[in-house]
Amino acid sequence: MIYHLITLFPGAFDSYLGESILKRAIEDKKIKVRFYNPRDFADNAYKRIDQKPYAGGPGMVIQALPVIEAIEKAIKSTKLKGVSVKKKIQIVWFTPSGRQFDTSIAKEYAQKFEHVIFVCGRYEGIDARVKDAYSVDEISVGPYVLTGGELPAMLMIDSISRQIKGVLGDIDSLEESRVSSPDVYTRPEVFVFKKKKYKVPTVLLSGNHKLIDEWKLSNKTGK
């Protein structure tokens, strides 16, 4: 899987991609990440790519052409042509009105596409004519508004990458593919904090896997 990030702030990804599982996945060449800054496609010496919105309103809007040219460069870098472009590349457009991202979408992306292009907006957004130039998947990562598309892109990269064989090392690490509970415990069996004892649930010490699975399921559903 190769992720292509259209962003004004590529440095925002440094810490997250440079740590833990995603860092290892990049080093092991399970995933690749490429960046394209719309400012590099600006037609002025100041690298300015934002303008006031038509019909008025606060803030600034990112111009369509620099973003389109960044997307075009990403597509060309894949060296795919014709039908393969549509079948193996997905362009993600972040918007609060898009379909809600979840694990099923992450699995769909991991199984279906080889390249994902994330268009990360900022300010008041990106000129909507970009969506006229390309077929995009409009995605929301939650019922709230963020200052940019970088965090949603990181979230999707993390979730999709987990579905790629070898990224987690052990495929059984996928909580959604096995009986699991949101609550987990480890040693010591008992500890004391402010004169109160905190114990591991007895069933987890029983060795009875049937009862343990039943506990995990009931704990997961809240029953």
Write the layout of secondary structure elements.
Elements: E1 2-6, H1 14-17, H2 20-27, E2 32-36, E3 50-51, E4 61-62, H3 64-78, H4 83-88, E5 89-100, H5 103-112, E6 115-119, H6 130-133, E7 137-140, H7 150-162, E8 190-193, E9 196-199, H8 209-221
Parallel strand pairs: 1-2, 1-6, 5-6, 5-7
Antiparallel strand pairs: 3-4, 8-9
Helix pairs in contact: 5-7
At CATH level 2, the architecture of the largest domain is 3-Layer(aba) Sandwich
What count of domains describes the coordinates? Answer: 2
Helix content bin: 25-40%
In order across it, which strands form the biggest sheet? 2-1-6-5-7
Query: What global shape is seen?
Result: elongated
Rg is: 22 Å
Number of helices: 8
Which fold name is given in CATH as the topology of the largest domain?
Alpha/beta knot
Overall number of strands: 9
- Average pLDDT works out at 90
- Low-confidence stretches are none
